[in-house]
Amino acid sequence: MNWRIFLVFIGFSLFTVTFNAFAQEKDTLFLRNGQIMIGKLNSISLGIIQFDDIDLSVQNVKYHKIKTIKASMATYRIQTIDQSVYYGVLKPSKNYGEVIVDDGVVSKPYPIVNIFNLVSLEKKFIKKIKGTVVLGYSYTKSSDIGRTNFDWNLNFTEQKYQVEFVGSFIFTNNQGVKTRDRESVGFGGYYNLNSVLVAGLGLNYQRNIELGLASRIQQVVGLGRRFLFKSNLQGTLISGAVINRERSLEGSSSGNLYEIPAQFKLDYFHYAAPNLSFTVFPKFFLGLNQNGRKRFDGDARVNWEVINNLDLGLQFYASYDNQALAGSTTNFDYGIVFNVGYKFK
After folding, report:
1. What number of other Cβ atoms are within 10 A of residue 64's Cβ?
2. How far is CA 123 from CA 73, 129, 153, in A?
3. Burial 269-280 (b: 16+ CB within 10 A, else e)
4. Could you tell me the pTM of the whole model?
5. Which of 6, 44, 208, 239 has its CA 20 to 30 A from that of 121?
């Protein structure tokens, strides 16, 4: 064999081995106590770093326990408290509690607590799906009443947009008679116009027998503004336009009903043990062609992550309609739901 060809072959082989080793290099969390975790960085949100350790599976690590981070197995959408957005990787810093954000053009150090949100832009479809599925049940022997609730909140994230699929069902078994008390299913898409503004479209289904509502099909277009940029606190204001079509329990149907929504979503995470998260999501609707109709739908949730992937949750919900539909004896509905949930990571 010609020695030049042989040297080229050896050089190419060494390059291939080096490239493969680099490509397979894992992400690393450097903890303040000296421990090192090796695996894959999934996300950063509300004070929690979600890391898939090769030995311990998915771990949720709080900001204040981290010295620095090295993450380059994927491209990340990195949003910081100063409202900057980067598409790049994290490099380790020599300073405690700091990382270097590198998007290939800019390389800038940030305190880890200033990473407002980080999402891994996965290549495989199934790995892009995150969220929680929860189930609850209560039973009263004296009245022979059983109540089941089932909820899910799944999302799919890409570089500029996010798709959400959420649902909530409450069923009652009253001495053998089963009723569908309250149902809600929503499918929505959100596009990040910039680090502050988000535009969205949604299609929702609702049912509430307490308010005389057999079904409501809701089409939504909206614009939201993020206004809280803290490591453990995030808030968004949303408004736009809504078109509803409703059917009452007595079977009467409406035409198109137009509303202006005003919605506010607040997410808060409690750093210290226990590992608690809070979500408040009130929604107000003002009717445009319904003779002053006003509606309210809202819920507040408290979740406690007992162990990895397992949540205990408490949900408070309320609905109000100043023009409740035929078949209803009240215009106000509220409830408390306890559930156990599994978190997809």
Report:
1. 13
2. 11, 11, 21
3. beeeeebebebb
4. 0.70
5. 239
Three-class DSSP category at 10: helix
Distance CA 93, CA 100 (A): 6
Helix (H, G, I), strand (E, B) or coil at 12: helix
How is domain 127-344 classified at the architecture level of CATH?
Beta Barrel (2.40)
Token code pair at residue 297: 């739908």
Residue 330: strand, helix, or coil: coil
pLDDT tens-place string over residues 162-210: 899 999 999 888 877 888 999 999 999 999 888 788 999 999 999 999 8
Domain edges within the chain: 3-121, 127-344
How far is Cα 326 from Cα 335, in angstroms, rounded to an integer?
A: 22
CA dist list (Å): 212 to 173, 206, 252, 293 = 19, 12, 11, 15
Q: Reduced to 3 states, what is the DSSP secondary structure of residue 195?
A: coil
